[in-house]
Design goal:
Blueprint (H helix, E strand, L loop, with lengths): L3 E3 L8 H21 L4 H8 L3 H17 L1 H11 L1 H19 L5 H30 L4 H8 L2 H20 L1 H12 L1 H7 L4 E3 L21 H13 L1 H16 L4 H28 L4 H19 L5 H19 L14 H14 L1 H18 L4 H18 L1 H39 L9 H5 L1
Parallel strand pairs: 1-2
């Protein structure tokens, strides 16, 4: 199937097929990556490793996921979204299946961390970028609904894998997950590129392969710092909430449901934020800021709650507000208050690349705090701290964007004033030449001004 050519953003059409593909991609990337927390204790016992060393499996995968974002953007802009996503699906499946045959935690660093991590990036980023290009007015709502695949995966896989591994073992569970992740290859076939070709233009402009010019935009810098620190709170809670529950007296069978509660609440959060952003008239980054602040407070609450129903409430609130943030922070790049839809395809890779450090540090930092304090609640402190700093950075996006617009407005006014002064000067030169020319001689204005 060739590219779809439209005179304006269709806000639908083939975009619904792309949304369905993104739903499956979310399940097979973020959904399964976060669900690997159910194997945490099994890996520690199998390989005789500490909590922090096992956490590096998730951390390396998240790091490769983000550090290869510019590569994903380059390949997508050069070869197209379809072949890149299909290759990513193959790598994800290959890495997960290979991890089932690992004999050491180091081998899992390579299989799940390196191979699957690269596949995650080649799959996720091109799909969400293309989806944002198919929608305009309904972008926030559609993206939120499609991104709920991650939450459905957590809701279904956490209790299912917990029960299944008791019967067939964690290795066979990973093989099943790897086979399922191969479905991403089929999703890649649905990614028809879109070309917006206004009737007044003969040829649409091609986006840059990778646009680093946004690093001069102070609003984009602040927004990227927001993404960097917010990432600290994206992975660790799902990774440690089951062990946190068990350490506070919750039975194994009940502890796995805390992750499911979190996943269900995240679905509602993703759907709710899509509706809200479609309705509000204020800056959308302000809505996102409110969600980030509340998410930070919930992370702190995890550290002071000691009974099951209190943990359920925390998981519900965390899942809801995580859904609002996780489903919008990348698509928000398409809003004019950040960089705009025209630059999103080239800037998304730069944005995700900047997140790499937090993706690498988050899970091991939480694991190290657990090893030192022997308290799983300590892992949530680092998440809350990162989320708090991210809120400050996000609050600076609006003022930075306003300052940039004012500077550009002053620059345009100065250019217009300079242009008007030059026109007046040219007129005076012509008039002066006519007054001083011999009587009856017609002076050509162009010659007089030379």
């Amino acid at each position: 199937l060739g590219p779809n050519v439209y005179s304006e953003v269709p806000d639908g059409g083939w975009g619904w097929a792309v949304a369905a593909a993104f739903f499956v991609v979310e399940i097979c990337t973020y959904g399964i990556l976060k669900g690997l927390g159910v194997f945490l204790q099994d890996l520690m016992e199998e390989f005789g490793e500490s909590n922090s060393r096992v956490s590096w499996v998730i951390s390396i995968s998240a790091f490769i996921f983000t550090v290869t974002a510019p590569l994903s953007t380059l390949l997508s802009n050069h070869f197209g979204y379809r072949p890149v996503v299909m290759m990513g699906g193959l790598l994800i499946s290959l890495g997960t299946i290979s991890s089932a045959f690992s004999t050491s935690i180091t081998e899992m660093y390579i299989t799940v961390g390196l191979i699957s991590g690269l596949g995650y990036c080649l799959t996720f980023l091109p799909t969400v970028t293309l989806l944002a290009q198919y929608f305009s007015k309904r972008r926030a709502l559609v993206t939120s609904i499609a991104s709920s695949g991650e939450s459905f995966a957590l809701f279904a896989f956490a209790p299912a894998l917990t029960a299944l591994k008791e019967h067939i073992g964690w290795r066979h569970c990973l093989v099943i997950l790897g086979v399922f992740q191969a479905s991403v290859i089929g999703c890649g076939l649905l990614l028809r590129p879109i070309i917006i070709k206004p009737e007044s233009e003969a040829e649409p402009s091609r986006p840059k392969l990778l646009d680093f010019s946004v690093l001069k935009d102070s609003a984009f810098i602040w927004y990227s710092l927001f993404g960097l620190f917010a990432t600290l709170g994206f992975f660790a809670p799902q990774l440690y909430v089951i062990e946190l529950s068990k350490s506070r007296g919750v039975e194994q069978s009940m502890a796995s449901y805390t992750l499911s509660v979190m996943a269900v609440a995240e679905i509602f959060g993703r759907l709710s934020i899509g509706v809200v952003l479609n309705k509000v008239s204020c800056r959308k980054t302000l809505v996102l800021l409110g969600c980030v602040v509340l998410l930070c407070l919930v992370l702190v609450a995890f550290t002071i709650v000691w009974e099951f129903w209190g943990l359920v409430v925390c998981c519900t609130l965390y899942g809801f507000f995580l859904g609002t943030v996780a489903s919008t922070h990348i698509p928000m790049l398409a809003e004019e208050e950040v960089v705009g839809v025209q630059k999103m395809a080239s800037c998304a890779g730069v944005y995700v690349f900047i997140q790499k450090f937090a993706g690498l540090a988050g899970p091991p930092l939480g694991g190290a705090l657990v090893d030192v304090t022997h308290n799983y609640g300590a892992a949530f402190y680092s998440c809350a701290a990162g989320m708090g700093v991210s809120a400050i950075c996000l609050a600076m996006v609006g003022p930075a964007k306003s300052g940039t617009r004012q500077r550009r407005r002053r620059q345009r006014e100065e250019e217009e004033k300079t242009s008007q002064d030059n026109e007046q000067l040219d007129f005076l030169e012509v008039d002066f030449a006519q007054e001083n020319s011999p009587a009856g001689q017609v002076v050509d204005p162009e010659e007089a001004s030379v």
